[in-house]
Amino acid sequence: MEIKRSAEELEDNHVMQISGSNGIVHNMEFMSQAYLRNQYSSEIDIHEEFVSPYPHEDAPLPIFLKVPPSLSLFVFCLLSITGYEIHSLVLNLQFEDVEYKVRNIQASLKTMVSKVVTHTNSDPDGYKHILKGITGSTGPGEILALMGPSGSGKTTLLKIMGGRLTDNVKGKLTYNDIPYSPSVKRRIGFVTQDDVLLPQLTVEETLAFAAFLRLPSNMSKEQKYAKVEMIIKELGLERYISCKHSKYFLLETTITRCRHTRVGGGFVKGISGGERKRTSIAYEILVDPSLLLLDEPTSGLDSTSATKLLHILQGVAKAGRTVITTIHQPSSRMFHMFDKLLLISEGHPAYYGKAREAMEYFSSLRILPEIAMNPAEFLLDLATGQVSDISLPEELLATKTTQPDSENVIVKYLQLRYKTDLEPKEKEENHRNRKAPEHLQIAIQVKKDWTLSWWDQFMIIFRRTFRERRRDYFDMLRLVQSLGVAVVLGLLWWKSKTDTEAHLRDQVGLMFYICIFWTSSSLFGAVYVFPFEKIYLVKERKADMYRLSVYYVCSTLCDMVAHVLYPTFFMIIVYFMAGFSRTVPCFVFTVLTILLIAITSQGAGEFLGASVLSIKRAGMIASLVLMMFLLTGGYYVQHIPKFMQWLKYLSFMHYGFRLLLKVQYSADQVFDCASKGGCRTLQSSSSFDTVNLNGGLEELWVLLGMAFGYRLCTYFCLRKKISICHL
């Protein structure tokens, strides 16, 4: 049954999709006040001729609800209470006279020098202008392509649209006539040029964890899995075929389930580049963003894979989303798949309009290719001023032959013609036809709260973190290293005794070496964690996937598994081989002290890594800190000069070593009975000149405070650093 409406009524209709707790996807249509002037009740229309964007037979049935705009906010609240989640809001993006500049350090230095030498004021602001007045608009169902040569500002404009660059930005940028705000952020999906995916997770695990974190809590576990399953099939991530062949014959054909293959990347073998790109897109469209931004999605792909990827983006756009992508040099077939095109040259727009009308526009300027040419290649040549095999109007032909910088003249000419011919029309159209209805303005401002509680996020992130890092935790080389060093130390200090001063000194040296080993292992095992995972953390925090506190607590607890497991096995071997005190309390307290030293060292490593978020600098700083802690630990130098004694109070190794001696030895214990002077107490030994073996366990509380303090500082460092990082 189809309700016939007039053209005026259809122009006022605006559609958005909602999903209920039963997993069925609906389309909610808010009608204008003009249409509903005499309507006092809602109606439900089922369109039999609706063309579904889902090609499968189990496609959701669209249901159109006519609701007055005045009741929009009430309907939003009602749907959220009754188990519905609005997940694909219609979004119209408008940008007008967008400018962006960055501080040019070299230019600033030159300005300072010129002021001192010549007292001139050239380039007073010291900024480099990247974008210079970009205007345009796009809406649902459209793919807007941003084209231009390298360095023209495509990615910068895309980041501004996604709210990832906000400083030094001028111009007007609105989403349904509303400026960017945190409520808009979660309706935007951003696919970076480099696929930022955890390499050790499989494709299915990557999407499943994203679904559990980002989809609403009123969806059941089965519904979230079903959505992941649907997207995997839609984007062709079900399986791939690999062939092994000789020079003349096919040897083997293997069909592998792509969904169960690790994503890979860097030095980790995984899926292909095209599959990794489709996984990145699936990661974003999983939550049905209203605006999907993609930065060079076809880079590194062959023509067939790139075309297939663009077909997927067409399906995403037809489902009611707004799609904007940067593209470098697409094939002619891909070029005609774009709805709109924005050509950028040196930060200036050179063309904006329908992609299919680009050639017609430049033909009207009497700029035509003289040979058969890919339209994208033709436009890029114009954007750079390279006009070989391109016919020009007479006013430009003269400059081409007479002026050495004819390329700049051609680029300036195109920019001027855009300013006079196209820009006024686009601005007028934006002001006249692109006014968003009131209910859409209200909808875009509805603040999306966290979809899950802190504890629910913790359980999901903890499982994901452990699954991502478990190969490092249970690495065979790491196990062999720990157990091998333990055996070597046990053999070197086999059945060591404390009957003489020399033997006591040897055993105390073993204690200090154990402190060194687990301090350095834990410190360097933790210092690189956040520098390595910075790009993943920035990406997921920009999308508001989880709270930063959840991520950090899960990270430090998961890593603590390795920092507890290996030292325990290590001490079980060394303790009895080296002949330490064979009493249960001494053994237990010695092991717990080593674990406390390892956990404190882990916190220090996390703090150093989070404070710089740079792999190179973190390693260098960790080496310097470790060296300082070793020297002030209390073994190499016991009597430190007074003006340097403050260093030892910063060293957790100093407190750990003292605590280890206190739990292992007793002040009343005697030794060196065979000497001429007779038996002496351990407290009288020179090895314990600076340690009071009966002085209590205040070092325990200091180490606990340091372990907690380092982690608290790490959290605040991460919070500050991640907030200013950009992808």
UniProtKB/TrEMBL annotation:
It is found in: Membrane. Keywords: ATP-binding, Membrane, Nucleotide-binding, Transmembrane, Transmembrane helix, Transport. The keyword Cell inner membrane does not apply. The chain crosses the membrane at residues 473-494, 510-530, 550-576, 582-599, 620-637, 700-718. CDD domains: ABCG_EPDR. Pfam families: ABC2_membrane, ABC2_membrane_7, ABC_tran. GO terms for molecular function: ABC-type transporter activity; ATP binding; ATP hydrolysis activity. Signal peptide: none annotated. It is a multi-pass membrane protein. One of its GO terms (biological process) is sporopollenin biosynthetic process. Residues 93-371 form the ABC transporter domain. GO terms for cellular component: endoplasmic reticulum membrane; plasma membrane. Its main location: membrane. It comes from the Eukaryota. This is ABC transporter domain-containing protein. It comes from Brassica oleracea var. oleracea.
